[in-house]
């Protein structure tokens, strides 16, 4: 039988660990791919890293960024939030 928990047999710790592992995995992939994109853009003279650092989104872009952020947070925290909603 497969082990369905990370630490002890505490379900709340397991849910938190699932969030941490998911975030770590996604962060690594994003950092790796973003680094590649930045290097390639810089090499080709299309965009510099300073261009990225200095970028200011429009109001519509900011709205989209916030909506995307909210969906991401909801997705990442769902293992914790779902159980809490089930209990209440």
Descriptive account of the structure:
The protein is mostly helical. 78% of the residues lie in helices and 0% in strands. The protein has one domain (13-87). The chain has helices at 11-44, 49-54, 59-87. It is elongated and about 55 Å long.
What's a quick, concise take on this entry?
This protein has 88 residues and is mainly α.
What is the arithmetic mean of pLDDT? 83
Cα gyration radius (Å): 19 Å
Characterize the biggest β-sheet. Answer: none
- Strand tally is 0
Uncertain runs: none
What gross morphology would you assign?
Answer: elongated
Task: For the record, give the distance between the C-alpha atoms at the N and C termini, rounded to a whole number.
Answer: 31 Å
| Number of helical elements | 3
- What portion of residues belong to β-strands? under 5%
Percent range of helical residues = over 70%
Elements, N to C (H/E): HHH
Overall structural class, as computed from helix and strand content, comes to mainly alpha
SSE layout and pairings?
Elements: H1 11-44, H2 49-54, H3 59-87
Give the key terms.
88 residues; mainly alpha; elongated
